[in-house]
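Q: Here's a chain of 473 amino acids. Please give me its 3D structure as tokens.
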Amino acid sequence: MTESWVNSAERIGADLHLELSGPGGRRAALIQALREAVRSGRLAPGTRLPPYRSLAADLGVARNTVADAYAELVAEGWLTARQGSGTRVADRAEPLRGAVRTPVRTPVRARGPRHDLRQGAPDASSFPRTAWAAAYRRALQAAPSEAFGPGDPAGRREVREALAEYLARARGVRAEPGRIVVCSGFAHALRLLFGQGAGGVLRGPLGVEGYGLGFHRELLATAGVRTVPLPLDEDGARVDVLGREHAVLLTPAHQFPTGGPLHPERRAAVIDWSRARGAVVLEDDYDGEFRYDRRPVGALQGLDPECVIHIGSVSKSLSPALRLGWMVLPERYVGPVLAAKGEREAWASVLDQLALAEFIVSGAYDRHVRRMRQRYRHRRDRLVATLAEHAPHVEVTGLAAGLHAVLRLPPGTERSTVKAAAWQGVALDGLAAFRHPQGGPTAGDGLVVGYAAPAEHAYGAALEALCAVLPPG
């Protein structure tokens, strides 16, 4: 079928007839017709083309079709586009003779899952945009001129003072600003601590929990660090099996991903081990603020600040888009970590640091955490209630804290359930994906279901889709 468009002189300065025909669809036909019009001189250099909406209406095509065609011709050099002056024919639209022109294709956006129930992500739609923008503005206005120069590798004094006060009050961390080093997140902290080969602040072997993030294990392996898995039970990591390791990495407030805090006796035992061995405990406090059924478990670091490196970030409490984290270090590690980081701040934006300091000091951070704690608790309760109604045979564990729960499945059903979920557009993780390759006894079949990421309006549909793929009782 052939379609045409006759454009009025009032729009582009000359009558123009375009034939939209041939293979490839309307977008390809429009691109080819405009190229021919420019090449033949019917569209002279500098001629202004109609807006997307007007041309789309005249041709009876979608607005995006015209926009995509214009964008490709701009990329190829046939047209130019400037804010306020519209889209025009380029002054030199014809490519040089003999030049090879590679068409620029509009990238096709990969289609994501319909329901995202993966762990580790907060509700992105709940980021406190207004409060954060206000804090950022106040921080910029109050910042001294030297704040806009090279950054201190330890981090801005303002944010380290704010963090010292907040961590002591909310997490029981015994901190002072001089012991805090700002980083861009937990992975960055690991890179600073272990470096590459023998050049790191710490060395292996490193004890790790039998279940954890594979990304962290891969990062450590790249640095040449051997990890030794610790068995897990209902009281957390079996720290009694620690031997000649130089350090141990734990998630004591809420074991990731199986859930549950480290038992008080084991907290004391790992501190005793650290003192006796001259070793150090790395405390990953990844979601310590989000405890729902009783007061949060205090940080392990509070038992002995010289035995524990406390590591945290805002990736769960605010957003992973804010690349801000911190280490609270024993005194003997402050100098080596700063030396590993370098003479200038190269990772965490100084302006974001100032904004976070203002966000904390103003009380906005506390208000946001309280609001999100209530929201995530409600999400958790909806998950439990939905499963009780539609899948009462599925046990749910790890509910006391965090942004995810573990659904225990019948033996041999985990892999097929994860595959069925993917077919139905439900993104989630199987428990086996987090197991250390050399781990001991498995924790059984299960799903790690994040309940924070879906938008509020989509959460009910996500739970329905989850129940539809669970194995029958």
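Q: Can you summarize the key feature?
A: The CA atoms of residues 125 and 455 lie 6 Å apart.
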